[in-house]
Amino acid sequence: MQRIYEPENLLEGELLQRMLASEGVEAHLVGRDLLGGTGELPMSGLLALAVDNDQAQQARELIAAYNAALPMPGDEPVDPAGVLIC
Residues 14, 16, 22, 24: is their CA dihedral positive or negative? Predict the structure, then answer.
């Protein structure tokens, strides 16, 4: 197993784990159970995506493509003046 990526938070980690699964790459979200210790444990380096050695390169390429992706035309949020978008 190789640690291939450190997500910023649990949401990003789970999203990427499912994206990799949809491409046939089994990824494990390491450190998910350590998040309850935040405040007593260091904030960085707790979460990581890990995959089998033979799928590491493919997983890195998929994550790089995901991080480089831009929104589809028309998917940009509409921001009318005076309206708060949450």
Answer: negative
